[in-house]
Fold these 2 entries.
Entry 1:
Amino acid sequence: MSLRVFSISGAATLQGERRFGRRHFGVPYGGPWDRESHLLANALLGNSLSELALELPMYGGVFIAEETIRVALVGGNGPVSVNGTTASSNSTFTLHKGDRLEIDAYSEGSIAYLAASGGWSGDPAANVKRNDILVSNERTVQGNATAQHLSRPPQSLATGKIRATHGPQFDTGLWTEDPMSVLAERNRVGTRLSGKPSIGFQEITSEPACIGAIQVTPKGEWIVIGPDGPTIGGYPKVGVVIEADLARVSQLRENQSLSFQLLTAEEALLESERQQNETNSLASLIRTSAQRP
């Protein structure tokens, strides 16, 4: 079962599980930037929750079915159509040979996941570009399968303060909860935010940095490290976005205003466990429902 990429914008990649065990060699974890949307896209199709899905940046793409195939689209919201007829995101589609799936630029959020029944075949983190053929691991598809929908959008699209806990250089006095805005320089490596201009200070000796670490540059800009970000950093790390809110960082848009809210390490751990359990339970329920005949 396959889908041809007719057009695509930005750096689209296949993403599955995070890759642990090599960070001490300088290799980042990678994996889905918005883990919640990735899980839910696979769940809607009854897939294993770790199957590869296509991470689509905010300008979407156009795809042509080479054969009958079932796909699910979850995450950033924008106009979606099949053969010119409006369709819903956060749901599954059955495409027949020659059908044209168009995903326009998102009006809400910044990335979405296009999953295939059985998962996409390929290498994790592989770039996907125009004229590529995406092949699913499923060999037969029921052409009349019932469409599945999410009952609510992913929580990663929620607005409000981004929660963080202390970083190793929190006591430098650089931390602020004043509003900032998202700058154009953002990708899976990091998200750059406006801050206090020209605050000036000396860099520190490079030290390990984790996903979600918030670094402050000498210009006063803040950088939130993403899933493909550096494993060390020489800017002060004043905070760390809690695991529960990392997916929300992935959905930020240029010029969007945001501010941070400080939690204790204990509060951050409890909230991240609560959110992870809730997401995993929801994904398991949806997956079980999707697998019923």
Entry 2:
Amino acid sequence: MIDVKEVMKALPHRYPFLMLDRVTEVEEGKRAVGIKNLTMNESFFQGHFPGNPIMPGVLIVEALAQLSGVLAYKSGAAGKVTYFLSIEKAKFRKPVVPGDQLRLEVNVLRGRGTIWRFSGTAHVGDKLVAEAEFTAMVTDREL
């Protein structure tokens, strides 16, 4: 298991934009599983939406992307920078609310050179709440 301290070694993200609490499984170059616990204290719940807090779908995709960043880090990209290039086939199936635990899973579809392509799913309990495919660039330099 990778705790939040090690997640922060792999990613530049910090509160309030760190969307990953821990990583429970990593198969280098293949797949990873992670967890995000949601409380009412998440800053985005204050405005999305007052009286009816729902996690923005784009932040679920961001959580999947951050898990992909940890997977790339553990697959030989330590010390490199990962940037989102594209998001495709994103679908948001159920609202995610305070008290939910997101179980995130990403799989490498292609990891050649600096361009990596992933598929990802997010579940609350046994319910699929979101899915997407996305592409990232892993590079030595900052843009």
